Every structure is written in C-alpha cells, then in structure tokens.
Amino acid sequence: MALTIFNTLTRRLEPFIPGGVPKEKIEDYPPVTIYSCGPTVYSYAHIGNFRTFVFNDFLRRYLKFRGFTVNHAMNITDVDDKTIAGALKDAITLREYTDKYTNIFFEDLKTLNIEPVEHYPRATESIDAMIDIIAHLDKKGLIYEKDGSIYFSIAKFHRYGRLSNVINMDIKAGARYDADEYTKEDIRDFALWKAPKDNEPYWDTPFGKGRPGWHIECSAMVRTIFGTTIDIHTGGVDLIFPHHENEIAQSEAAYDEPFVRYWVHVEHLLVEGSKMSKSLGNFYTLRDLLLKGYSPRAIRYLLLTAHYRKQLNFTFDGLNQAAQALLRIDNLVARLNDIKQDASPNQKVIDQCNAFLTSFTETVDDDLNIAGGIGIFFDFIHDINTMIDSNSISKTDAEYVISVLKKVDTVFGFIFFPEAVNLNKEEIEALIEERNKARKEKNFAKADAIRDELLQKGIILQDTKEGTRWILKS
Ligand code: AMP
Ligand code: ZN
What we know:
Rossmann fold, binds adenosine monophosphate, 14 helices, binds zinc ion, alpha/beta
C-alpha cells in the first residue's frame, strides 16, 4: 500500500509521488516540497485557522513518519488591506504592527506543539520576486495597466478556472477587481500590483509605485524558495477561489511549467454547527479557550483528529471528550511506567505493537485518514491495558510499547512522556494545593499549567469526589 492524497485539481485520490517520478524506496525520493498559505497577521488567529495549521503540521509529521524528508514553507502575509488599516488605526508602522501579531502567532504555534517549518517568508521581503513574475507576464502580453494598478488578463490564460471548476461560468473578461477576496460569481481580472493610496506604504518598481495584491506573494515565494514545480500546496477550502486559482494563473503563465502537483484543501471548522463569526458570539481564538481552562493538548487533539476533508464541528462537549481521551492515554503511559517486574520479551506484545503500526499506517495512508488512525490507536490501548491486567507485560515489554507510543507521537504530538521524578512528596502536595486554589479562583489557565508541569515530571493528577489524588511513576 502506498500513500494516497485527494488532489483538488484532478478531484481524484492519487498515489503520492514526490517529484513526479516513482522510486523503488521511500528513501530514494527527493525532499517533499510543501507550501502552505499562512496567516494574515492583523489580529489573533482563530481556532478555524488553527485547524488548518494543525493539519499542515500533521501532514509534514506523517510524511516524515513514512520515511520522507520535507522542505516546507509557510508565508506570513504582512501587507494587505487589513494589516494596513490596523497599523493606521494604532498609529504605528506596518512593520511594528505585523511584528506584534507575527510574534503572537509563533507563540500560539508553540502552544499547540506545531513544529517549525523550514521557511517563513514575509510578503514584504519578497517584493523582488513579485516584480520578476510581473515582468515575465508583461513580456508575454498578459497584463495591463489601469489607473496605476496592474491587472492579470484572465481571458488570455486558457487554463483559468481548472482548480475551482469555474471554467464554464461567466468570466467577465476585461472587468477588474481590486479587492483581494471575491466570489465565484465575480470572476474578473485581478490586481497583481495596486496603485498607491494616501497613507499606504508603497514600493518603487519598474512599473510604478504601489503595493502587491494578495495573490502574487505566494507565487513569488514558491519561486524564490523552491525554484520550480512543488509537490504539495495547502490551505483552507476558502482559498481555492480566487486565491489559489490566481496563483496558478500567474505562476504557470510566467514560467511555463506546472505550479503544483497536489492541491490539498482543509474543510472549515464550524462552532456548534455554525460558521464562526464575531457577531454570533461564537468566535474563539486559541487564547480564549486557554482562558476558559482548556489545555493546549486537548485543543490540538480535537483539531487534529477529524478527517481534513470533512467539516469539523467544534463544540465544548467535543473538547471535554478530547480531554478524556488524553486521560486514557496518560493512564496507559503511567501504567506502563509502573511495571517493575522483568522477564524475557513476550512475543505477543511485540506482535501486537507491530500489527498496530501496520494497520495505523495502512489507514492513514488512505488520504491521511487520521480519524481512522485514532480509532485503531484506541483499540491498541485497550489491548495493551488488557495485557497489563493479566500480567502479560514485563518491564522490557513495557519499554517496547513506550517506544511504539513515542513513534506514533511523532505524528500526534499530544502524548506526554513524563521525565524521571525529582520532586518530593511535600513539593507535589504544595503544587496540588496551589492548583486547587487556582481552580477555586477560576484561574484555570494557571491550574492547568500546574497539572501539566506535574505531568511532565511524572505525576498524574486524578480529580475525584474525595479530592485530588496523584499517581507517581518512577
Ligand atoms: P487567513 O489568516 O485568513 O489568511 O487564514 C489562514 C488559514 O486559515 C487559511 O489557510 C484559511 O483558508 C484557513 N481558514 C480560515 N477560516 C477557517 C475555518 N473556519 N476553518 C478552517 N480553516 C480556516
Ligand atoms: Zn497563499
């Protein structure tokens, strides 16, 4: 079995072949080149955005789990209508404004245990590459100027519309759009470069002063970082049209080669069944959830474990269930760490572990079916717990199981493996006391931080009717 991925461009499940040339062994493939549309840094990212960013993280982690190497870029959109408006409102420079939200974004990525990628290009640092694309398009007669802005003439690019399937829709050739976002009902020529407006930052270019349209930055960064066709381009489904459609048009028309092999789009997150919006009061940033006392691990679990092509209905119930699921995993790790008795390796344990890894991989290989993979993981947890119950697992076996959990956690990134304990009983109880106090004061973020600190040090807390108990592992 090989990894297959659904390609939005062909609307088919396709075997994944990095570089486009099949190889005998996974190790023989060149690094998988991935580009993910990143955040527009004008505010805090919301949990819908983080669904997509957690998916990007899972994708790269899973590719590495399968033996590929990855070369991954995610852009930071630091110039657009919203960032410019924000900087003006706060009376600071665009860079000061976007630096603030870029730093917050990176903190949030860390909180969610999202691995750093290899490249984080900023739009404002990619202007030369944008100029290069526009110059190529100009030579081919595919652009025109109107009121100081430069537009791409979509009627001259015959493949326009293939990704979003707008081919047979009413293309208003010669009509233009300045806004970065618009709907399929309004397919028009889009702005590559926008004429300067009062109070807006601008750059001097061979075609006059101005600032980039939104779509051009991703094409420019892909070209600068990777130089040629890339393997995977990701983003949320809202980006298929017009953003990704326009990226394809610019890049392929400028450089006469395919832009991307696999287009991968993540379905949206809904909150309690509705589209998230500030006016409905169901709009949450990551920090909103942390303040309500939810742990980053539970949030990561919930965002990660739904299939990326299905809408994810975020509910607080779901978040509580995620926390429960993590508790089951923590308890297994604790039980395994508690096993002291040694014996020669039990072949049954080894077989069970290997069977789990095989069926997990086969399942997730099918269009990155992590939801199915999680189901198989919990069956495995159940089987191992049953073996512990019947004393069939020795210390050596337990270590083997832990190594399998560590392997699978290179994909999940939500299992805690406590370090050796170096706290004494009084210190642990003082921390529990402090946590109880924080909970009484409804300072759930602090309470949670203490719980996680103890967990990291090898202590699991269990809140019971009689109070908080702890289990110590060595
Ligand atoms: P933005 O900062 O608005 O450019 O969005 C960053 C990423 O989040 C993009 O890939 C969007 O497609 C994605 N995104 C936006 N809203 C949602 C949502 N509700 N659910 C999942 N992904 C989203
Ligand atoms: Zn983009």
